[in-house]
Structure formats: structure tokens, C-alpha cells
Amino acid sequence: MKAEAEVGVYYLVSIAAALLLSAALVEATGGSWADVVGALLNGSVLKPGRIGLTIGVAVPMLIVALGTVISTRAGLVNIGQEGQLLVGAAAATYVGVELGGPGPLVVVALILAGVAGGALWAGVAAVLRYWRGVPEVLTTLLMVTIATQLVGYGLKNQRFLLAPADGRANRQQISEQLAEDRRLGRLVLLGNELPVSVFLAVALVALLSLVMARTVFGFRLRMLGSNARTARRVGVSEVRYGGAALVASGAMAGLAGAVMLAGGNFGNYTLVPGFSSGIGWTGLLVALVARQRAVSAVGVALVFAALRTGSGFLAATGVERRITNVVEALLVLALLIPPALVFLRHRRRAMGLSAEQLRDG
């Protein structure tokens, strides 16, 4: 209990220091910290409808973070979520526009297409990792650029993603908008519109927590991530479980892209250049700050989403809205410092015990 209380103090001190430094930076740029806080709160939770918008932005961040938790628990470093999300969104767009049939059926199909697109893109990195020994940290990152160029090419050709010329400016590279019956539903609660994808995200959090803590598959993933050599000795296939974890991570990112498209909070139900809006990178940070815990990622995603939605109200304060990026970075550093301090303390203690044993021996 004493150790846990000490770690809690570390977190409080680190967060307080990050907020104080953020306030100092705002004041140094000629703004008022009180005005900035007020604008962020108004833009994210206080003004009518803003809570629903913040939750809608948090959902894809959370889904990406959950996928990151899966790959990291298996000892893999997937940092290509931005590209996997974009490919998933492109696949969902193509199916959502081109597939015939009842609207609800098409919604299900485009969601599955997003999952398949993200899984396929991560699957390439998995094949290279276990077939050729190429580190996934390199392949997943490099494939973000390929995904961006590939989707950009699709948005220049009408046979792929570009909307018909009628009703579109000549240089406007956008997809056709999803029909109304091909969109995810939205609920109105206390004056806020909530996408139904909120319930999907919550269900995924519960499912992932259960799988990781209570199933053989989750146990083997954690064993592989903790000590791959020991896992192999007891019969855990690194190719099977590691590959599955990387593909599942990409599938979650692709699902986030499909949810962003069909949910309407991004791109107005169309695929546009820059559609991913950095959600893939932010979801990666969410998982990092949450220390690979699915439940903790819920709160972290809401904080990051609030900073994003609240930044739109900063113009009235005279402060550049990119200051929220600085605040995000400082919060990330603040939440990473306590684990690092605990690690260093444990390592120092272990080295001290080893030295003492050598003297005694």
C-alpha cells in the first residue's frame, strides 16, 4: 500500500507540474491561462451539444488504443495505426458507396470492410516480421506513407473513390457521401447527439479486458510479451499469436476508420484528404498513457478528445489552438515519468541486492 501511495504522489506531482508549465507557456505567449481553461471547458463539455461531440471524437481514439493494447501485450510495437485507419476508412467508403442492398446491411458490410482493410494492412507487416524478420516498428511506420499515397490516388480516380463530377468542384478530391440509410445511428441524450458507436467501444473495452484477464489466448499473449523465449519453450507459437495480435491491432484501427466515416463526426460522411486527422497517432498515445490498460484508456481518450474539441474555442482568447498539442505532449510526459521512476527505483534496489550477495558470497 505504501508503494502504491508513493506512485500516486508521483502522478499527482507530475500532472501538476505539466499543468503549471502549460500555464506558464500560455502566459508567455500573451494569453490568459484562465481564459484558455474556460474556452477548453466550454468547447468540450459546457456548451450545448459539446459533450456529445467530445464523446464522438473519443470513440475512434479509444478503439485504436484498444488495438494497440493487443499488439503491445504480445511484445510487438505497432506504430502504423494512422495508415491502418486510413486504409480501413477507404475500404469502408468503397463498400458503403458501391454495394447495393438494404441500408442496415450495407452499414454492417462497410464496418466489416473497414476491419478487413486495417487487418490486411497490418497483416503485411506481420508477414514481413515473421517471414523475413523485418522489425514491425519499421514496416508499420513506413506503410503509413504508402497508405496515404494509395488513398490519395484513389481520391483522384472516379473508378475507385472519387465522387462523380456532377455537383463537385473540379479540384475537390472527395468521395461520394454515404446515403442517409447507410450511416450509423445517433442518439439524443440531454441535448447531446451520441453516435451508437459509443456502445460498440464500451463493449470492446469489456471484451478485451475479459479476454486478456480470463482466457487462455490472453494469457499466452501476455506470456509472449513478457518473455518470448519462455513462451516458445512451453509451446506458444510466436508466429501464430504474434501475427494474430498484430493483425487484430490493425483490424481495430480499420474499425476506427469505418466508425469515423459512418458516424459523421469526421468528414461529414465522406472520405477526404487528411480524413484520419491524426486519430491514429493520438490513439497510440492514449494506449501509451493508459499503460496498456483497456479500462484506463477510456478516461485518457476522453481527456485527449476534450483537448481536441475544446481547441476550437481558443480563437476568442487570442491563443493559437495548437497550444493544445503542447498540453497533450506535456501530459504524456507527465504520465510517463512515474513508471520510469518506479522502474529506476526497482532496478537500483535489485543492483544493490546483487552487490550485497556478491560481498556475502
Count of individual beta strands: 2
Mind telling me the C-alpha Rg? 22 Å
CATH first level of the largest domain: Mainly Alpha
**SSE arrangement, N to C:** HHHHHHEEHHHHHHH
Strand-pairing-aware structural class: mainly alpha
Please give the count of helices.
13
Q: What share of the residues lie within helices?
A: over 70%
For this entry, what is the oligomeric state of its chains?
single chain
CATH architecture level-2 label of the largest domain? Orthogonal Bundle
Strand percentage, roughly?
under 5%
Number of domains: 2
What is the terminal-to-terminal distance? 33 Å
Biggest pleated sheet: 2 strands, antiparallel
CATH topology of the largest domain: ABC transporter involved in vitamin B12 uptake, BtuC
Spatial strand order of the main sheet: 1-2
